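Most newcomers find our protein records easier to grasp once they have seen one. Read left to right, the backbone structure tokens trace the chain's path through space. Nothing more is needed to start thinking about how sequence determines fold. An example says more than a description, so a record of this kind follows:
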Amino acid sequence: MMARKDWDTYFMDIAYMASTRSQCSRRHVGAVLVQGKKLLGTAYNGAPMGVPDCSEAGCMLVEEYELVASDGKEQVVKKQRCIRTIHAEQNLLLFTDREDREGSVVYVTDQPCWTCANMLANSGVSEIVFHRSYPKDNDKVRALMEQRGMTFRQLENYEPPAGTVSEVKN
């Protein structure tokens, strides 16, 4: 008999299943809202409803420059970011009610970016659980969650369900 999954694994599996709906060629992200052990909503990253997504219209890339410190030296790094896609966490907040979010937990396949972390910090959510880290915003997002008194944790030994992980392109 197969061992019963713990709640973290169960809800993260659902987040990964939601991520399979994404048409983003750079990163498939899924998010789940949970109150107690009740699933209240799922979301994934993608273009707004009724608008061609990246698989149909291509990525809408913008270039950004970031000052990065490494080994005591600072250098300017040029990065590209797609702005066609609404992030999974943003879609989750758009399609769930504030009263349902009060004291709830968000399970998300990837650590929230700075913008999503800010939105989640103001959403009523009390805990964020993620699997894959997002090094670019890690330190400042962790500091924000600590300031807000929110639980913020990574499932490091988690294994996503077969067929749900896409290659991550930065």
The mean pLDDT is 91. The CA atoms of residues 19 and 29 lie 5 Å apart. Residues 7-47+85-153 form a domain with the Cytidine Deaminase; domain 2 fold (CATH 3.40.140.10).
